[in-house]
Amino acid sequence: MSTTRAKPKKPTLKVTPSSRVMNVSTSGVLRVNHSSTYARSINASVSRKSFSLAADSKILDKSSVQTPKHTVQVFDENGKDVTPQPLYQPDPAAVMSKHSKIFASDTSGGTMSDFYSTAYQTTTNASFAGPFTRSVFGSSTVSRGSQSTMESMNEEIEDPSSKRDISISLSDVQVRREEVKELIKEEMLDDVVDRYLIESETLWLLHMPAVSVSVDSEEAESVKERNNLYMELCKNRMGNDKYVERSMQTFNGAPKTKEVQSEAITMVDAATTATTWDMYDSFRSAGLGEAALSPDTDKASVPEIVSNHRLDPTRAPERTMSVISTTSIASASSSRIEIEPFVVPSEDEPDPELVLQSEKFQQDLFVMERIILENIYQPKLAAYRQLPTLEDPDSVPKVVPTVVSRREESSLDEESTLTPALERLWSFSCELTSGHNVSSMAWNKRNPDLLAVGYGQFDFKDQKSGLICCWSLKNPTWPERVFTCESGVTTLDFSASNASQLAVGMHDGSIATYNVESREKTPVIDSSDCAHKHTSPVWQVRWIDHERGASGEDKGETLISVSADGRISKWFLRKGLDCIDLMKLKRTRNEKDKKQVGDKEKKSEALISRQAPGLCFDFHPTDSNIYIAGTEEGHIHKCSCSYNEQFLETYIAHKGPLYRITWSPFCSDVFLSCSSDWTIQLWRQDLFTPVLGFTSTQSAVYDVMWSPKWATVFGAVNEGRVEIWDLGASILDPTIVSLASPGVKLTSLLFATETDCILVGDSDGQVSIYQLKNLTVGEGTQVAALEDIIGSTLASQL
Amino acid sequence: MAEVEETLKRIQGQKGVQGIIIVNAEGIPIKTTLDNSSTVQYAGLIHQLVMKARTTVRDIDPQNDLTFLRVRSKKNEIMIAPDKDYFLIVIQNPSD
Which end of chain B has the lower number of beta carbons within 10 A, N or C? Predict the structure, then answer.
C-alpha cells in the first residue's frame, strides 16, 4: 500500500484511490439531467476539482474494492501527522443532499463511499449550493439499488443526527484533502493490492452548449422555428395583457440625525497604599476569619481599606490630605463608617477629659514615670543589680566619687587593695514618709524588687498613725502602695505562699493582713475582733511554713506573732482571725541573781504579769518546730511548738531587752542576738553561754541580720551607725562602718537577697540603699569558716 | 483623676524633665507644660514620627503594635507613649 500512503516532500494530499472515484462520480453527476445552473456549477466545480486531483494522482486505476479505509494523511519527513484539519465541517444536511445527488446517478463500479467522498468535495467547494441542491435533488431519482437508501436519506435530510451514522456506516473512508481524517491502519500498508488499468470513460471537461446552429444541421429547422416563435412573442409583448410592466418603489425612511448629550464622566484618580497591617485590620474589623473571606472580599475590602486608612488617623476632615475628598468619591461603595468623619461633630471638648481619665493613660503615665526615673537613676540601679555602669557619652563628665558614704577608719584607696566600704546608692523616701520612723522592712518573697516598709514609733510616746509603704525598685521617689494604719506599725512580713499578702503587727496589739495587689487601702482582715488579740504591742510577726502534716495540723503557712503581753500566738483564719497561744513567756527566775530578784519577783509578781514581754523570735530554718524567742528580760528561750508550757532551753546572757534574734541561714546551730545592752551575741544551740560577743559602741543595737550570701558576715545597726561584721576578717571590729547623718537614728536593717546591698531604715523615714563594695570574704566554704571560728574561739576559751 | 494629676506633677518635678505634652489623636495638644509654639511643633513632628514607627512595626507583623518610643539625642531624650487616642510625650534631659 505504499502507493496509497504517500509521503510527499511537501504536504500535498494523496488521494489516490479516490481519484478514480472522482472520475466515476463526475461522470455520474453529469448524467443527472437536472440541469439547473446550480447543479451545473457544482458539477463544473466538481469536475475541476477532480481534474486537479487526477493530475496529482499517481494511480488511475479502478480498483474499486480496496480497503475503504483510506484516509488521507499527510506526513512530513519526521513522520509526524501534519494532516491539515478541515477548515470547513460540512453540514451533514448538505452532505446528505450530496449523497442523494450522487446516488441518483448510477455508477458502474463506484461504491457508496466514493460518492460520499465526492460529496464532501463538493460541499467544500460549494457549500452554498447545499440548500439548493437539496431541493433539486429532492426530486432526483435513484437508479441504482440505493434507492431505499436515498429515500431514507432524503427523509433524513432534516435529521442531521442520523445522517452521520449513515454516512459512517456507509463509508469508512472519507478524507480527501483536509476534510476528514482517519487513520491509515498499519495493516493496510502491507496488504497486497491489485491495480487494474483500464480505459476510463470519456471525460467531459467542458461542455458549452452552442448558441448558434448551422443552417445545415438537423436542428436548424427547429431552431429557426423556435426563434420565430420567440420573435413573435416579443412583438406581442407590447400591449399584451400577459405582460405588464410594473415597478415598485421602496420607501426610504427619512434619515434623521439624533444627538445625545450626556454628562461628562468624571474621572478620578484613586490611589491607596495597602499595607500589611491595613489589610489585617480590615479583616479583623470585618469580624470574620481570614480564611473565610480571602479572595471574595479582596475586591470589596479594597475600597474599605481606603476609607479605613483615612479613618484612623483622622477624625476631622480638615486634617492633612486632600486625598480624602477623592477617596470618598472613589470609595463610595464602602461602608457607612466613612461617613462619620465627614459629618464633623467636632467633639473636642469631652475628648481630653476622657483621654486623661482613661485607664490606659494612667498606665502610660505610670510607665513613663518609671522610665524617666530609670533615666535618672540608671547608674545607681545598675550598680544595685551589679551591672557595669556605663558612662553617658554626652553628659558632662563629672567626678563621681566612688564612695559617697562617710567612712571613718577606712584608709585611702590604694590601687592594689580597696577597702571594703558601703556606697550609698539611693534612698526610698517621699514626703509622705518623712518624719516617720522606719520600724521594719521586708522583701516580697516572689518579686525581689518589691519592698514593704513599715513606719511606726518604737516608744509608746508620740505615737503617730502608722504607715505602710510598698516600694518598688523601679520608682524610688514614690511608693507603689501606701496604707495608713491607726497605730504605728512595728513589724511586717510578706507571706511566701501568697505573695501579695502582707501581715502587719501594730503598736496597739492588732494584727492585720493586707493585699498589696489591690488598690484598696483597707486591710483584708484585722484582728481587732478577735477575743484573744494581743493587748500590747506586737513586736514581731512572721509567716512560718509548717511542713509537717502528721499531727493533723494543716500544712502551709501560719502567722506567728509575739507581743509584749508575753504570748506567742499562732493565728489562723476561722471566721475571722483567731489565734491560739503557742507559748506564754513566763518570767524565769535567774538562778544567778536569785537573791535580789527573788524578793522583787515575789513582790512584783502580784503587780506585774507573770509574762515576760516577748520582743522577738525566730524559727529554726530547717526544723519548723523549734524556735527561739527573746524577751525583755534579756532571756532567750528555746521552745517547741509541741510544748506550750515549757521552754526547752533558756539562754541567759543579755542584760537588756533583746531586740533581735536570728538563726544563721548557713549553720543551723548558730544564732545571733542583739540587745540594748550594746552587745551582739553569737550563740550555739548547745551552749548556754554565748560563743562570741561583739561590742563596738555604746549604743543599743536595734537590729542585726545575717547576710544571706556569706556565712560569716552579718550586719548590725545601732543608733548611730551601720556595721558590717565579717567574722572571717575580724571578730573584734566591724569590717565596715557607716555613720548615720546627724540627728537621725538608724533603726532597721535588711539585706538584699540577690545583690550585695543593704537597706537601712532610719528614724526620719528614709530607707537608704547601700552597696557593699570590696567585701572580700575569705575562701573556703563559709560554713566551715564559721565553724572554725567558733571552734577556735571555744578552744581558746577553755 | 486626682491620681493622674499627682503623677503628672511628680513627673514634672523629676530631675531633668523639660516638658510634658499630651496630644490627642488629631494632633491637638490637650495638656502641656511647654510654650505654645514648641508644643505645636513637637506635636506635629512627633505625630508623623509615631505614625511611621507604628507602620513599620505593624508591617513586619500585623499582630504587633507600637507601645513605646524613645528618641535619644545629644541634648535630651524624647519619650513617647502612643495610643490610639492620645500621645504622651515627655522631654527629659537626663544629665541635668
Answer: N
DSSP string, A702-744: EEEEE-SS-TTEEEEEESSEEEEEETTT-SSS-SEEEEPPTT-
Q: Is A320 on the interface with B (CB under 8 A)?
A: no
Contact A454, A468 (CB under 8 A): yes
pLDDT of res. A77: 76
Helices A359-384 and A350-357 cross at an angle (nearest 10°) of 40
Rounded CA separation A794/A787 (Å): 10
Q: Does A281 touch chain B (CB under 8 A)?
A: yes
| Residue A347 predicted with pLDDT over 80 | no
Q: Are A553 and A598 in contact (CB under 8 A)?
A: no
Residue range A458-463: average pLDDT?
72
- pLDDT at position B36, please? 92
Query: What pLDDT is attached to residue A592?
Result: 42
Report the pLDDT value the prediction gives residue A407, as an integer from 0 to 100: 40
Distance of CA A345 to the CA centre of its chain: 36
Contact at CB, B14 and A369, closer than 8 angstroms: yes
Compare CB distances from A366 to B7, B55, B74 and report the shortest one's residue: B7
Between these two residues, A320 and A267, which has the higher pLDDT value?
A: A267
Structure confidence by residue, pLDDT tens digits, A4-23: 444 444 444 444 444 444 44
Strand order in the sheet with A466-472: A438-443, A450-455, A466-472, A481-485
Mutation pick from B8, B86, B93 vs chain A, by most beta carbons of A within 10 Å, is: B86
d(CA A510, CA A536): 8
Whether the CA torsion A232, A236, A237, A242 is positive or negative: it is negative
Percent with pLDDT over 70 in chain A: 61
Q: Is the separation of the CB atoms in A533 and A526 below 8 Å?
A: no
Q: Give the CA diameter of chain A.
A: 194
Question: How many whole angstroms separate alpha carbon B90 and alpha carbon B96?
Answer: 15
pLDDT category at A280 given cuts 50, 70, 90 is: confident
Tell which residue, A782, A742, A733, has the closest CA to residue A762: A742
On whether any CB of chain B is under 8 Å from the CB of A394, the answer is yes
For an interface test with B, the pick among A372, A426, A478 (most B C-beta atoms closer than 10 Å) comes out as A372
- B4 and A371: CB-CB below 8 Å? no
Contact A352, A740 (CB under 8 A): no
Asked whether the beta carbons of residue A280 and residue B70 sit closer than 8 angstroms, the reply is no
* A253: amino acid identity, one letter: G
Return the higher-pLDDT residue of A96 and A227: A227
Confidence of residue A363 (pLDDT cuts 50, 70, 90): confident
Domains in chain B with CATH codes: 16-92 (3.30.450.30)
Main-chain phi, psi angles of A468, to 5 degrees: -125, 125
* Interface residue B9 vs chain A (CB under 8 A): no
Radius of gyration of chain A (CA): 61
Inter-chain touch B25–A313, beta carbons under 8 Å: yes
Provide the grid cell at A486.
491607726
Q: What is the pTM of this model?
A: 0.57
Give this complex's ipTM.
Answer: 0.83
Sheet with B86-92, strands from edge to edge, namely: B29-32, B17-24, B86-92, B77-82, B69-72
Q: What pLDDT is stored for residue A89 in this prediction?
A: 66
Q: Grid coordinates in use for A792?
A: 577556735
What CA–CA distance (Å, rounded) separates A562 from A571?
11
Question: CA-CA distance, A386 to A368, in Å (whole number)?
Answer: 24
| Type of residue at A758 | I
For residue A71, the model assigns a pLDDT of 66
| pLDDT tens sequence across A541-598 | 888 877 654 444 555 678 888 888 888 888 877 666 777 777 777 776 544 443 433 3
A190 in contact with B, Cβ within 8 Å:
no
CB atoms within 10 A of CB A682: 22
